[in-house]
Amino acid sequence: MSSLPHGIPPVEQLLPHAAPMILIDRVVAVSEDRLQAELEIRPESLFHNGTGVGAWVGIEYMAQSIAAWAGYQERIKGGHAKIGFLLGARRYGCSVPEFATGMRLGVSVQLLLQAENGLGSFECRLTDLATQQELAQATVSVFQPHDATHYLQEGMA
After folding, report:
1. Which of 54, 74, 89, 126 is most buried, by the most CB atoms less than 10 A from its CB?
2. Are the C-beta atoms of 145 and 64 separated by less than 8 Å?
3. How many Cβ atoms sit within 10 Å of the Cβ of residue 43?
4. Which of 32, 16, 27 is nearest to 107 (CA)?
5. What is the pTM of this model?
6. What is the CATH number of the domain that holds 123?
7. Domains of the chain: total
8. How far lies 123's CA from each of 8, 18, 63, 139, in Å?
9. What's the pLDDT score for residue 19?
10. Is residue 5 part of a domain?
11. 129-143: pLDDT as tens digits
C-alpha cells in the first residue's frame, strides 16, 4: 500500500505538529486515498482526565490522521507536511463517552473529495483494536491552502 522506498515514515515526519500535540502513535497503512493509524490511550495522553480521554477528542484523532495522509502525499512528491485546517465534522457519532486508559484505537480515513483549492472531505472511523468494534464515525472537512503563511497573514490583515 505504501509508495515510498523505505516504507511509511514515523508519524512525526508526516505531521506539521510537534510533541505533545501529536496524538496518533503510528501510521500502519497508506494509499492514494486511504490511511490507517493507531494510538493507545495512556495516562500521559493529551486530554487524559484520569480514567481516559473524552470521546470528543475522536474528531482530532481523525483530523490528525487526515493530516498524516496529506503529509505522506507531499513526501511522495518530494515535499514535506504542510499546515491544514479542520473545518468541521458532520454526523460525528460515538458509542462510548470516553476512550478508556489502555484502549488501542484504529483510525481509518478515506478521501471522498479533494478540490484544487485545498478543500477536502474524508469518511473517518475509530475502532477498538481489541474487539474490532467501531466506536465512532464522521465525515470530516478540511482545508489545506497552497500557501498557509500567506493565507494566515491575509486573514489577520
Report:
1. 126
2. no
3. 10
4. 27
5. 0.91
6. 3.10.129.10
7. 1
8. 22, 25, 11, 5
9. 87
10. no
11. 999 999 999 999 999
